[in-house]
Amino acid sequence: VRLAYSPHETRASAVPVTVRAGDAETKLFVDQRNPLDANDRFRTIATLDLPAGETTIVVENRDTDGFVIVDAVQLLAK
Question: Which of 5, 43, 56, 62 could form a disulfide with 20, with the two C-beta atoms 3.0–4.6 Å apart?
Answer without folding.
Answer: 56
